[in-house]
């Protein structure tokens, strides 16, 4: 028997805590920005580590040996996230195909070329434009699973948008049901040559934010479960793309349950944070940081502030106390105190003056 969802009572409690003070809201938004961008892109193969992502998005720093394409992709995805948030908060603007095509254009930046699966030829990806060739995925069993054809994609996307507007207006579906159904129907269409997974997760959060729910993160370390959940929906709807594009609520139940579980956990965590019961609410477990050398530091969401300072200094030796305080969401006094401890323990030293010098992490 399925347990009773706690989302209704949790969302009621969450809304009762509003409005949040400026610092708390900034901390929550900043943490989500890093967690969502890192995880959603990492699921699709972006090679930036969590630490590199954090430095890039908070300070614009490009550190380590990752591909420049991955840095550009991460920055573009964050632009898409911020643009999506601004539209979600405008209750007078309805979800549209123009919005989705523009979102695809933003996160993919510019037209580019990809190599075919059999590596026989290269083809051009036109960003913000619906696909012009069939797309599919190879299942774990080796079978080809096809998405909607290029010919039927425009009409299916129009139907999807009209369905969403109608259901949003009717207010019969739970928000997690509305988000799950849109996500699954959209994925079965797979309207673009690239970026479909990232768009689907952005739209899920568009729907949540539009209805005053906190946004969620599908973690990269949960990728297998996420894909298996989508596969369970596929088994219920069958292989005909147009059937998947109009999947019923009961057919999408595995994804609804999956999103609801993440949302419930997110609400519980945010409520505890706002009440002061916890101080850390990062949504990434394993965040290996590539320092650009042979050294790799594994960062857990539960490590102490001083260990995080070491990790940051290995990435950016000239960072200021003010920048570290912002990055770790703590006070400058806390940073100074932990730096003093690290210097006493002979783990770091300051080379040069306070203004023009840099930090050295000792081995």
How would you describe this protein?
It is built from 14 helices and 8 strands. With 363 residues, the chain is mostly helical. Strand 3 and strand 4 form a beta hairpin. Helix 4 packs antiparallel against helix 5. The termini are far apart. About 5% of the residues have low confidence.
Chart the SSEs and their pairings.
Blueprint: H1 7-16, H2 22-43, H3 50-59, H4 68-88, H5 97-108, E1 112-115, E2 122-125, E3 136-138, E4 144-146, H6 153-170, H7 175-189, H8 196-210, H9 223-237, H10 241-244, H11 253-274, E5 289-290, E6 296-297, H12 305-315, H13 321-328, H14 332-344, E7 348-351, E8 358-361
Antiparallel strand pairs: 1-2, 3-4, 5-6, 7-8
- What is the spatial order of strands in the main beta sheet? 1-2
List low-confidence stretches. Answer: 286-303
Mean pLDDT: 90
Largest sheet, in brief, is:
2 strands, antiparallel
Through-space gap between termini: 54 Å
Order of helices and strands: HHHHHEEEEHHHHHHEEHHHEE
Approximately how much helix is present in the residues?
Answer: 40-55%
Number of strands: 8
Rg is 22 Å
The CATH homologous superfamily name of the largest domain equals Fido-like domain
Q: Which second-level CATH architecture of the largest domain applies? A: Orthogonal Bundle
Q: Write the CATH fold name of the largest domain.
A: Fic-like fold
CATH class assignment of the largest domain: Mainly Alpha
